[in-house]
Amino acid sequence: MSAESGDLSEDEEHALELVREQGSIYQSEFWKELDVSSRKGSRIAKKLAEKGLVEREDAVHNGNTTYLIKPVIKEEDLDFSLLMAGDMLSPFVGEEEVDARSDAFSQWIMNLVYEDPVVPESESGPEPEPEQ
Length: 132
Description:
By secondary structure, this protein is an alpha+beta fold. The chain folds into two domains: 3-74, Winged helix-like DNA-binding domain superfamily/Winged helix DNA-binding domain (Arc Repressor Mutant, subunit A, Orthogonal Bundle), CATH 1.10.10; 79-118, no CATH class. The chain is 38% helix and 17% strand. The protein contains five helices and five strands; from the N terminus they run αβααββββαα. The protein has helices at 10-22, 27-34, 38-50, 103-114, 121-124; strands spanning 25-26, 54-61, 64-71, 84-85, 88-89. α1 crosses α3 and α2 (27-34) crosses α3 (38-50). The longest helix has 13 residues, at 10-22. The termini are far apart. One of its GO terms (molecular function) is DNA-binding transcription factor activity. InterPro entries: HTH_MarR-typ, WH-like_DNA-bd_sf, WH_DNA-bd_sf.
């Protein structure tokens, strides 16, 4: 998991993963999915909310009062680079349908092809020493 969840119990980590995968989940379904008691599910959701990892909103589901649990998404966790090719934004953004034969799409693909590959530092190893 991420550094933010380093101090979470195994149950809390599993619960946070569930909420993130679902996008949102009613607390009345949350504890069932986790296969824990409603009381334990409530405590887990409350702890995640106290740590700022989820939000709990009052809700009614199947005629019962419950909470809607949603993950908190921090701006620094978002990676918009996957939408870019050079300085061009993906033609898929905001479009329901993209014509694969359009000039805009072709240009975006070509920018991807000719872009320098980004190699994470952990994979690239140390930089070579300059020759003298």
